[in-house]
Amino acid sequence: MTRDDRLRARLRALPSFAGSAEPFDPATAPPTPGGLFVDWLLEAVDSGAPSPQGAVLSTVGSDGVVSARTLIVKDVVDDAWLFATESTSPKARELSANPSAALTFFWPTRGRQVKVAGSVRRLPDAEGAADFRARPPQSRATSLVGHQSEPLGSIEELQAAYDAALARAESDPGLVEPAWSVYALDARSVEFWQTAPGRSATRLVYRRDGDGWSSGLLWP
């Protein structure tokens, strides 16, 4: 057996989306996706799911190349999903060139995932400043270091820069990184996916319909 065959055999032996969740009846879902998402997120939090606020943000650059990375979602307000990053970061530059993006949440212990697709906009600077000041010193220091995604000469260089930035953050709690910004993904569609024991998954999708939402089931 070749190495690839061994890996394939091991992967096939693993259970697929084996998490368990409470029964989900789409007929009882609220008229807008934000409320259902918050319910699912808080259930994931209460169940002890690891990093339930983490999501994969997928963007497309001006060259048409897709990028994806995991980040932390800060809030959901009026069917807009909020996250933060430096306005100089690669993802911010991609969003400036093409604001279309998607967030994917996956809670394996709950057997659930949610995909949010829409258009991203940058919120006023005051929102970014307030979010930055609310972060712990270690997180603020990471942003104050800067140079995100640029080539790094050595780990020692990074450590020295981080130590200096942490000293600044701890000595001046009001210090703000000017490039730190909050972004809102205004959803055009939100899909809820849940495993269903004994059959394929249940999929419920909301789509923006004028000023409101329409919803319906999807085949797995």
UniProtKB/TrEMBL annotation:
InterPro entries: Pyridox_Oxase, Pyridox_Oxase_N, Pyridoxamine_oxidase_dimer_C, Split_barrel_FMN-bd. Its EC number is 1.4.3.5. Transmembrane segments: none annotated. It comes from the Bacteria. Residues 180-220 form the Pyridoxine 5'-phosphate oxidase dimerisation C-terminal domain. SUPFAM superfamilies: FMN-binding split barrel. One of its GO terms (molecular function) is pyridoxamine phosphate oxidase activity. The keyword Chaperone does not apply. Its cofactor is FMN. Residues 43-159 form the Pyridoxamine 5'-phosphate oxidase N-terminal domain. Keywords: Flavoprotein, FMN, Oxidoreductase. Belongs to the pyridoxamine 5'-phosphate oxidase family. This is Pyridoxal 5'-phosphate synthase. It comes from Cellulomonas alba.
